[in-house]
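Format notes (please read before filing issues)

Several people have asked whether sequences and structure tokens are stored in separate files. They are not. Every record keeps both together, in the order shown below: the sequence lines, then the token lines. Line labels are part of the format and must not be stripped during preprocessing.
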Amino acid sequence: MRRIPHNSATASFRRIRLIAHHTAGEAVRLRLTGLLILIGGGFVAGAFWLREFNFGSTELKFIGDFGLGAIGGFGAVAAALVTSQLFFNDIHGRAAYCVLTRPVRRWEYVWGKLLGMAALLALFTASLGTLLVALLLWRGAQIGAPAIPVPIVLCACALQWFKLTLIAGMTLLVCSYSGSALFASCAGLILAVIAHLGIFFGESRLIVLRILPNLSVFDAEKLMAFGQPPGAVMVFGVLAYWAAYLAVFGVIASHVFRHREF
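Then the structure lines:
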């Protein structure tokens, strides 16, 4: 069998994949992750009992909007808290030292962590999204109303996942230079709030408001309201916007972490 050089692109991809797999496995085993999934699932299911407070919107749309809000809200908490906890568990538990003493570059470690969190957030979004789809189909059959098309709900959940991965990327960037998991998680949540409300700041002179992504791009209210799948131009634009910011966060975090002293 031909031996692959440790400095080749294939070897780098394998190392990143192994770190991502380990990160996702550690994240799934965290009690915090299970707690957030249970609470988020409870809120998604709770939309059925809160439908009387829909203030004029259709019942199914209210359930869909409330469920997506729960996925986005608790997903943001998971993206910030779990990312920082896993990162500093490796630092304080010396696991990162063991990994980095092997032929693993620091940028490979950072990208492995980011991809592992992306996998966890995909599992989180898929689990609660499946619950939401089942609830919408069940309630739609009960009242005899046309349900929101499943592809629309799945597209809305995908938008939530894009947003959550960017929050994880921002938190990982803070982790790359921070010395505290508490600071990193709080900073990640604060940055997420600022980025989500960035549209209200207009032409602000604060540089932080200009470099942060506008997370409102990934809101699914219009998608759920019109009930039509997004066009090719919108899909390409959202994907390019998400990929560009995720790459920027990963590159900066890798650069900062490479110069970090242990």
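For reference, the curators noted about this record: The chain has a mean pLDDT of 83. The CA atoms of residues 81 and 87 lie 10 Å apart.
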